[in-house]
Amino acid sequence: MTHDRWVREDAINTIIAERKKGPWPVVWRLLPKKGRLLEVGCSAGFFIEYVHDRLANLSLTGVDISPSAVELAAKRDVQRAQFRVADGRSLPFANGSFDVVYSGHFVEHMVDPVPALQEQRRVLVPRGMCIVHFPHGDKPYVEHVHDNVRFVDVRDWLEAAGFRDIDSKPVVHGPAVDEGIMWGLK
Ligand SMILES: C[S@@+](CC[C@H](N)C(=O)[O-])C[C@H]1O[C@@H](n2cnc3c(N)ncnc32)[C@H](O)[C@@H]1O
Fold first, then answer.
1. Is the shortest distance between the CB of 144 and ligand 1 below 6 Å?
2. What CATH class does 3-185 carry?
3. Strand 164-168 and strand 124-135: pairing?
4. Is 155 exposed, middle or buried (0-12, 13-18, 19+ CB in 10 A)?
5. C-alpha–C-alpha distance, residues 10 and 80, integer Å
6. Best mutation site among 13, 90, 109, 172 for ligand 1, i.e. most ligand atoms within 8 A of its Cβ?
7. 5-60: per-residue pLDDT in tens?
8. Measured in angstroms, how far is the CA atom of residue 41 from the centroid of ligand 1?
9. Is 73 within 8 Å of 83 (Cβ atoms)?
10. CA-CA to 78 of 20 to 30 Å: which in 26, 37, 53, 147?
């Protein structure tokens, strides 16, 4: 699933509105109140903008493999945010650069999510948090490499990537898709 197909999805505005009502407030409450956040697969910067308007002391970096996504994201009115074109499987950041790494609706698009999660772990500080937000189960609104993603799948991927103290929130029900939120510590 490329960014271009994602933002052309007719339902994109509805989906983003649902994210703001359902899963993003849940993710937001998990975030540190200050420090450095990286979002992998940031698309046009919807989540970064949401966080920017709510956490004034968090510096924000978004990466996406799609140049057109990053171009759109960079037009947002988010002064504390930076956006870069990058592949989540090979992040252009030094070890220990971030306090928290978030990816939303990203892992289910990876043929093998573990190397991408290992890369997220590499750029985290010790005890930094990796938050994975994914469609729980599947409803056919976009194509995924992994259908029917369950908490046990994401837990396996996080453990294989080296994360510990893995925990999750109960599924967040939404009209387009049910959302799972799971995290682990470096
Ligand atoms: C379904 S969209 C989700 C966008 C956003 N995170 C959200 O929840 O609204 C998946 C995004 O991941 C990006 N992506 C796919 N493979 C990637 C990779 N290897 N590295 C970085 N971004 C990638 C796509 O370009 C797309 O913007």
1. no
2. alpha beta
3. unpaired
4. middle
5. 30
6. 109
7. 656 555 678 888 888 998 999 999 999 999 999 999 999 999 999 999 999 999 99
8. 4
9. yes
10. 26
To 10 degrees, what angle do helices 151-160 and 113-122 make? 50
- The closest-lying atom of ligand 1 relative to the alpha carbon of residue 69 is 27
% of the chain beyond a pLDDT of 90: 77
In this predicted model, what pLDDT tens digit does every residue of 147-174 receive, in sequence order?
789 999 999 999 999 999 999 999 998 7
Burial class (CB in 10 A: 0-12, 13-18, 19+), 111: exposed
Q: For the chain, which residues make up each domain, given as ranges?
A: 3-185
Query: Which amino acid is present at 94?
Result: A
Q: Is 69 in the pocket of ligand 1 (CB under 6 A)?
A: yes
Query: CA-to-CA distance for 100 and 111, rounded, in angstroms?
Result: 23
